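Quick question, first post here. What does this chain look like in 3D?
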Amino acid sequence: MKGLYCRAGVSDAEPKFVIQETTLPDVLGCHQVRVQVKACGLSPLDLKLFRDVGIQREFIPVGREVAGVVLEVGPKVTFFQQEDEVVGVLPLDSPCSGLCEVIDIDEYYLVQKPEKLSPDCVAGALRDGLRAYTALHTHARIAAGHTLLVMDGASSFGLMCIQLACYHGVKVMTTSHSPQKHTFLEQLRPSVGVQDPLVARVIPVHSGPSDLLSVVLEETGGLGVDIVVDSGVRLHEEEEEMEEKKLLPHKHDIISILGVGGHWVTSHQDLQLDPPDCRLLHLKSASVSFLNPEVWTASSAQQGRYLHILKDIVEKMSAGVLRPQPEEAVPLYEATVAMETVQRHPKKKAVVKL
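> Answer (accepted):
Ran it through. Tokens below.
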């Protein structure tokens, strides 16, 4: 049986993805489930995170968001039985690649897959659904009547945030990173019978200097927003940066956009706040949270809550509350090329059909 693995290079910028032979043990663990994988979502590997949590391997398994069918269960498994359709995320220290035909996984990382959801759809969207849920519920504590600014709302993560927020009665604004994305966001509409647009305002940031701050303050009557969810930030104005980074907001703009008691959820791992930034946050009694969805599988302290979140995400997908943009599934023999693309462009998604 073959699986996809990453062999880290001299630096994090040089990972190599290779197909390796792998085998499964003859006997399942007490709480393990053997699953035949039908689809696997590919997300960029954070090699620094693996080192930080003490996972040091020559070959790191690739592909962790899986959907499949239960083939066999361990002697103490209570959640599942044979032929159940399941979906879940392999933990960071899993020895299995999700791109193997059959994998062993602890039952506490899986939930039932609704029948009407295709394996391709749920495997491709599960991680972004988990990130959106963590950002808005766990960190920001969204509630009806809040105002939310989502950066790059046309990305798969941004779209999940928008849909989840609107379901809870939150007023949403977002930014667009290209004319095509702007058109897509302008056409977003809610469920049948609701007259208000899904997004209150789409702010283009792709056509020169952005008026992000002035537009948001105009839309909120000068009060600012309750929540900002970014997709990365710029730390310094004078830096020579790549084209993609020029579309990101400056950290000072985000802090200025926040209202009193506001909450900033950031994906920027190396955020640096200077004393003036902290002073402004203090004056607004605002707060900053770092979005790391891996904490759910890196620690078992809140495993029950994690399973509740996974179950709620797939149920909302099944009910049409969350409607991810489908990714065209690629066959297994194209997995290496697809993963290299995802690693170079972290906002891209890929799904492999097995």
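DSSP finds eleven helices and 16 strands in the chain.
Residues 190-195 have pLDDT under 50 and may be disordered.
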